[in-house]
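New to this. Help decode the following:
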Amino acid sequence: MSEMPSPITRRLRIRGLVQRVYYRQSMVQAAERLGLSGWVRNRSDGSVEALATGPAEAVQALIDWAHAGPPAARVDSVEVSEAPPEAVQGFAQRETI
């Protein structure tokens, strides 16, 4: 029997033309397909912030997706950092901060 890998949590900060281009909803859909939990929200500085928890391969797949985003987005940078997990179910959009 193989053990389930320990989940990892990463915080993403995405900059570029990433607001008003369906970025958050597209990320929710991508994260749900990957079986991740977490959240995504707009920031008042024009960036998008996300927190993703799940198997390392799935989290990396979301990070890879974040570099392109939906078709109307123009991603200039994606900063990734380790983060403590949060008790969230599913993957949701949060209010802008």
User: Anything to note?
Assistant: The first strand starts at residue 8 and ends at 17. The beta strands are 8-17, 37-42, 48-54, 74-82, 91-93. Helices lie at 23-34, 56-66. The two ends are 44 Å apart (CA to CA).
